[in-house]
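Saturday, quiet lab. Running sequence design on the structure tokens for the scaffold JK sent over.
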């Protein structure tokens, strides 16, 4: 008998490679979570302070951030 774990795909829910925008957003979110906090207001403030804008080019709002996370499946 072997004690090997079943194989798990690292990105099981990914249907495509992330776009450059998605990579930048993810990296910036990690930075914001590390240095500023996890609350929605912290995240929106941190993204805007770093000039990482919403897909429409506008500054983030709590509503636009929630909508984008929903669109991305987060």
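Result came back. Writing it out in full:
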């Amino acid at each position: 008998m072997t004690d090997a774990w079943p194989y798990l795909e690292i990105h099981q829910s990914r249907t495509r490679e992330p776009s450059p925008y998605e990579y930048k957003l993810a990296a910036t979110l990690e930075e914001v979570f590390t240095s500023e906090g996890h609350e929605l207001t912290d995240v929106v403030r941190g993204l805007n302070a770093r000039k990482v804008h919403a897909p429409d080019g506008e500054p983030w709002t709590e509503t636009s951030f929630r909508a984008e996370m929903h669109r991305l499946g987060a």
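Notes for JK: The two ends are 38 Å apart (CA to CA). DSSP finds three helices and no strands in the chain. Ask whether to fix the surface positions before the next round.
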